[in-house]
# Entry
Amino acid sequence: MIRVYKHEDGATRIVESVDPAWLTAGSGVRVWVDLDQPTPDEARVLSEVFHFHELAIEDALSELHHPKVESYGDYLYLILHGIDFRASEHCFSTKDIDFFLGAQFLVTVHPGVSRSIGQVAGACSRDERILAEGPGMLLYRIVDTMVDNYRPEVEKLSETLDELENEVFEKPNPQLARRILNFKKDISSLRQIVLPQRDVIARLARREFPLISEQLAYGFRDVHDHLVRLADEAMFFQDRITGILDAHLSAVSNSLNQVMKVLTIIATLFMPLTVFTGMYGMNVPLPHLPGGDGAQFWWILGIMLAMSIGMLAYFRQKNWI
Amino acid sequence: MIRVYKHEDGATRIVESVDPAWLTAGSGVRVWVDLDQPTPDEARVLSEVFHFHELAIEDALSELHHPKVESYGDYLYLILHGIDFRASEHCFSTKDIDFFLGAQFLVTVHPGVSRSIGQVAGACSRDERILAEGPGMLLYRIVDTMVDNYRPEVEKLSETLDELENEVFEKPNPQLARRILNFKKDISSLRQIVLPQRDVIARLARREFPLISEQLAYGFRDVHDHLVRLADEAMFFQDRITGILDAHLSAVSNSLNQVMKVLTIIATLFMPLTVFTGMYGMNVPLPHLPGGDGAQFWWILGIMLAMSIGMLAYFRQKNWI
Amino acid sequence: MIRVYKHEDGATRIVESVDPAWLTAGSGVRVWVDLDQPTPDEARVLSEVFHFHELAIEDALSELHHPKVESYGDYLYLILHGIDFRASEHCFSTKDIDFFLGAQFLVTVHPGVSRSIGQVAGACSRDERILAEGPGMLLYRIVDTMVDNYRPEVEKLSETLDELENEVFEKPNPQLARRILNFKKDISSLRQIVLPQRDVIARLARREFPLISEQLAYGFRDVHDHLVRLADEAMFFQDRITGILDAHLSAVSNSLNQVMKVLTIIATLFMPLTVFTGMYGMNVPLPHLPGGDGAQFWWILGIMLAMSIGMLAYFRQKNWI
Amino acid sequence: MIRVYKHEDGATRIVESVDPAWLTAGSGVRVWVDLDQPTPDEARVLSEVFHFHELAIEDALSELHHPKVESYGDYLYLILHGIDFRASEHCFSTKDIDFFLGAQFLVTVHPGVSRSIGQVAGACSRDERILAEGPGMLLYRIVDTMVDNYRPEVEKLSETLDELENEVFEKPNPQLARRILNFKKDISSLRQIVLPQRDVIARLARREFPLISEQLAYGFRDVHDHLVRLADEAMFFQDRITGILDAHLSAVSNSLNQVMKVLTIIATLFMPLTVFTGMYGMNVPLPHLPGGDGAQFWWILGIMLAMSIGMLAYFRQKNWI
Amino acid sequence: MIRVYKHEDGATRIVESVDPAWLTAGSGVRVWVDLDQPTPDEARVLSEVFHFHELAIEDALSELHHPKVESYGDYLYLILHGIDFRASEHCFSTKDIDFFLGAQFLVTVHPGVSRSIGQVAGACSRDERILAEGPGMLLYRIVDTMVDNYRPEVEKLSETLDELENEVFEKPNPQLARRILNFKKDISSLRQIVLPQRDVIARLARREFPLISEQLAYGFRDVHDHLVRLADEAMFFQDRITGILDAHLSAVSNSLNQVMKVLTIIATLFMPLTVFTGMYGMNVPLPHLPGGDGAQFWWILGIMLAMSIGMLAYFRQKNWI
# Structure
C-alpha cells in the first residue's frame, strides 16, 4: 500500500501519487511517502521518482537487515528495527523499517502494519503543523515513537526476572531451566536489537550528516539517551539471569544433598537393625537376655530403640536433621 | 518546593522568585534555584525565566534518566545520580539530580529531599562566600558531596563480602545462595551507577566545556578520581563474589561427597553382615563351628566383628574415615 | 589451470595468454586472469607478466593465510576465505582465494574449484558488460557471491541449534554433549572466518585505497553490512549454545536428582519393612497380636501396609511424588 | 617526620628546613623533602613553602588514592603504590606514596616507613652524585626500587600456584577451595595495583610532561616494561588459577563417582545374596539340592560364590574395578 | 662466544673483532655481531664500541624481558622471544633474543644456542649476498625464521587437542583433567608469547622507524601476518579446550548418573524381594498358597519373578535400561 502526505502552503493533504517537480529545491513542498508492504508496481516510485541508489532500494525491499545509516550525497538511507514482541513465543522479534530522508521528503518502507508509523501518521493527518516542521522532524517523531514502544516490553522482562528469581528459591521446578534459557534468548535478542540502533542514532545525534539540523540533533540525543539506557538494562538483566542460573544449579545441588541425607539417615537407622534381627533369627542357640521368655522380645525392641535413638542423636549433632 | 539563593554585592540572601534581569551578563548577580519535587507551576520558571530547551526541561521533570552532560550553547545540562541505599531491600537505588549550569546561575531539580543538596544548601546559608565563588564551584561542591555519600555504602558492601566469605566455609547454609545472588545484584547496580557518572565527570574534568574554569577542572579531576576508585572496587567485588559462588558450589559438592561416604561405609559394613546372619537363619543343616552349642553364637559374633574391623581398616587406608 | 578473460572494444573474449602490453595505462583493455590450482609454470605469469611483489606471490601460492588487504602501490593484494562447509565433519572449512586488483586487471588465485568464482565466470562469459564495468566491479561481484554463499550454511546452523535446544529438554541423551561441543567448534570457526573478512571489506568500503571508486564503495558497504550481520549472528549463536550447554548440565543434574529420589523412596519404604519381618522371624517368643493364629499374618500385613502408606503420604507432602 | 636533603655546589647535606629561596629558578640548589607520616605542623611546608594546590595536598595527606599523575603547571603530582605484602593474611596490601616533582625539588609523602624510600635515602646520603642528577632522576630511582620490590612477592605467588596445582591432583583436601579463593583475591589485588601504575608510568615514559627529559624517559620506559610484564603475569596467573579451580571441581566429581561405584558394587553383590539366604530361611518346605543334608549348606554357599563372581566379572568388564 | 661477520666490497668474512671505524657513515662496511651467552669481557663491546644506552645493555644481558622495540635515535633495540618447546614438560618456554639494529650493523645477543640464529648464520657464511642486503634484511631473515619455528609446535598442539577431544568421549579417564589443565597452560603461554611479539612486529611493519625501508616493511607485514594467524589459532584452541573441559564435566556427571541408575535398579529389584522372603520366614502361621506343600516354594519363586519382571518393565518404560 502506498500513502502520500503532501504539505504545501500550510496545508497537509493526502494525495494519490508523487510529482517529481515537488522534489526540486525551492518548491516549498514537503512530502511523506509511506510504502506499506509495497507491490513491485508501487515500489517503482523509489527508482523512478526519487532515483535512489539501486543497492539501497534492494535493501529496503528485502528483509532482515542490520540497522545502519548511510549517506548517498543528498539523501540519507536508514534501517531501524521496530519491536514486534510475541509474548507467546518468548522471543523479541523485530520488523525492519527503512527510511529515505531528503531535504524535502521522507520515504518510509515497511513490511506490513507498523504501530509507530501508524501513530505518527494519525497525528500527521490531524495536525497540519507536523509535516510543516520538515521531514527530519517527522523522522525524529517516528523514531522516538519506535523507541518508546520498547519500554513496556522491557518492563515485562523485568517482571519475569523477578518471578524467576522468586521461583528459583521458593518453588523450584524442572521447567525452570527451560524458562531461564528462553529468558536468556530474549535478553540476547534485546541487546542485538538495541546496540546497533544506538550506534545509528548516535551518528545522527553527533550531526555527522548536514541534513540533521542542530535542533533535530537535540531530539536524537534524547532518543540516543533512551537507547543507551535500554542497552544498560539489557546488560543488567544478563548479569541477573546469569546469577539466577547459578542459583538454580546451586538449588538443584542442595536438593540432591538433602535427598541423599534422607537416604543415608534411613540406611544408617535400619541396616544395623536388620543385622540385629537377623542375628536373632539364626538357627543356633541364642544367648538368653534377662527376664523370662516373654521379656526377650521387649528387651530386643528396647535395644533396637536405643540404637535408633543413638543414631538420631549422632545425626542431630552433625546438623543433618 | 522552590528555593532561590541570590548573591549580590557580597551578600547571599534567600529570595522569593527569580528576576530575569539578574541573568544578563554583567549584572554581577549569582543565583542558585533549587527545585525540590516542583509543582507544574513552580517548574514553569525553567521555561519562562531561563528559557531552557524543551527536551531538557522534559528530562529534568521526569525520572529515571541516564547520567549525561549536554551543552546547549550558553548553559550545560547535567543528570547525575545521588545514592539512596535501602539496606532492607539489598539493592542500591538512586535518585536523579538534574543540573542547569550557566555563567551566573545554577538550577537544580530533584524528586524529593536530597541529602547532598541539603548539606550544601546548609553551608550556603551559613557562609556568604560559597555562592560568591560562582555557580560552577557550587556545582562542584554538590557533586563532591554526592560522591562522598557513596563511600559508607561501599564500606558496608565490603563488610558483607567478608561475612559471606567466612560463612561459606565456616557455616554453610541454604540461605547463602540467595544472599550471594542479592549481593551480585548490588554490585551490578553499583557499577551501573558509577560508570556513566565517571564518564560525565571526566568530560567536565577534561574541560570540554568553556564554562568549566581550570581551577574548577582540578576539583572535578579529584571527583573523577574517586569515581574511578569506586568503579575499581566494584570490579574487585565482582571478582570476589564470583570466587565465593564457586567456593559455595565446591562446598556443596564436598558436603555431598561426605554424605555419600557415610552411606557407603554403612552399606559396606552392614550388607555383608545381613547376608551372614541370613545364612545362619536358613532352614538347612548348618555347619557346626568349634566349641559347644552355646559357643556358636559367640563364634558368629566374633566373625562378624572381624569382618567389620577389616572393612573399617580398608576405609581408613583409603582415607575415608 | 589458467583462464584469461579479455575485454576490448566492448567485446569479452577468452584468450590463451596475457600480453604485457595490455597492462599499460590507456590500452583500453580489461583483463581477468583466473589461476585455479596453478602449476609452477602457470604461476610464472604473476612474476613475469604482472611483476607482483615476491612475498605476495609466495602467499598467493601457499595455503592457509589470514584474510588481509595490502596495497603495493599501483595494485592491491587481497586474501579472502570462501566457505567450504563439509556437513559430514561438522566443521566449517574455508579455501583461500587471493586477488590482485589493478586499474586494468584482476588476478584471482585459488587452490581448486571455487563455487563463487565459477558463478561469476559463467556470468562473465554470457554477458559482455560485466568485464566492461572494470576489474573493481568484477572483484565486488565475486566477493558478494562469496558472502552470499555463507547464508545457507548459517541457516543450517540455526536449525541445528533449534534441534539441540528441543532435544536437551525433550529427549536428553548421552550423545548430546558431543554434538554441543561440535556445534561450538562450528561457531568458533564461523567467527574466525567472518571477523577478519569483515575488517578487510570495511577497509575497502571506507575507500582507504584510491583504486576503489565511490560507486564501488557503495557495493562494498553492502557486503560489509552482510558480514556484520553474520558476525552478529555468530555471537548470538554462541550465547545460545552456551545457554544450551548450561541447560544440558542442569538437565543431567535434575535427572540425577530424580533417580536419587526413586532410590530414597524405595529404601525408605522397604528398609523398615525388612526390619519388621526380621523381628517376626526371630527365634524368641513373639507377642501375640489380637485374633487367632490365622489372623496373625494378616495383622502383620496390615501394619506393613499402614507403614508404607504413611511413608508415601510423607513423600507426597514433601512433593517428591 | 621530615627530612630535607639539599644539594648545592656538588655537596649533599641533610638540613633542618626548606628555604623558599632555594626554589627560585637559577638558585642551583636541588632539594628532596621526605615527609614520613607528617604531623599537621610538618605538613604545612607543602602549602607555605611549596604553595602546592590545596586539593593535591589534601590527597597527599589522606590515604587510599588511585595511582595517577597530574600536572599543575610547573610541578607534577604523582600517586604510586608501594607493595606491603603481609603473607599471613594472604593479601597484597599497598601504601600510597605521593610525589611532587618540580624542576629543582622532589617532595615525597608517605604514611609510615617505606622500604623503597629508605633504600634510596641511604644511597643518597652515601653518594653525593645522586641528588646532583636532579629530582627527576631521584624520582626514577625511587620508582624503579618500588617496582623491583614487587618481584619477590610475585615469585612467591608463582610457587604457591605450583603447589596448589600439585595438591589438587595428588592430595585433594577440603581446605583447597579456601586456599584457591584466597589466591584469586591475591591475583585480583595484584592486577588492581599494577594496571593503574603501568598507565601512570606510561605517561611519564611517553614524555607527556616537559619536566621529564629524554634521558629520564628511557628510564621510565624500562620501569614501564617491568610493569607490563607484571600485568601479563597476573593475567597468566588468573588463567591458571581458573584452570585449577575447574580441576578441583572435576576432582571432587570424580571422587564422588568413585564412592558411588563402591556403593553400587557392594549393593549389587550383597542384595541378591540377602534375598537368596532369605528364601532358604522361609518357613515352607524347600527344594532339596543334590547330595545329603550336610551338602545343602555347601551347595548354597557355592551358588552364592558363583553369583558374586559373576557380578564381579560384569563390573570388571564395565571397567568399574 | 662472540662471532663477527663483516661485509665489505662484496665479500663476507668472519673476523675477530669490531673496528669502530666501520660504523662511521659512508664506510661501506656492514657488520653482524652475534653474542652467544657473552662473558662480561665480550659484552664490553656493546658499550665500548657501539656506545649503546646503559639501560638497553643491561636489559640485553639479563633475562626474561617483555618483547618490545625501542628507538634510541640512530639505532633500534628489539627484544623478541624464540620458541624453546620442551614437550616433556608440557609447557612452551622461550628464550630472549635481543637485537640492536643500526644503519650499518646488527648486533644479536642471546643466552645460549639459538636455532634460528644458527640457521641464518649458516646461510650467511655460505652466501655472500645475504649480508650485502644490509642489516635490516638480516634482521628480517632471523625474525622470519623464528616465527616459522613456531609452526610445528602449534601443529603438535592441534593434534593433542584432537586426541583429548576423542578421549573425553571414547575412553574417559581420571588423568584427563590434569592433561586438560596442562594444555590450557600451554595455550596461555602461546598467547603470552605471540601477542606482544605481534605488536612489536606491527610497529616495524607500519614503518614507525626510518631505519626500516619500504621493501623491508613488506617483509615484516608478512611476518606480522603469521603472528596474527598464530594469535587467532591460540584463541581458537582456547575456545576448544574450554569446550572439552565442559564436555569432560558433563561426561563425569553422565557417568555418575549411569552408576546411580544401576544402583537404583538393583535396590528396587531386590528390596521388595527381601521383604517378601522375610515375610515367609516369620515365625507365625503363614497363609497356604494353592497346591501341596511342595508347590509352596515354586509359587513364591513365581511371585518373586513376576515382581522382578514388573519392575524391569517399569524401568524399560522410563528408558533407564
Q: What stands out?
A: Chain A is about 60% helix and 15% strand.
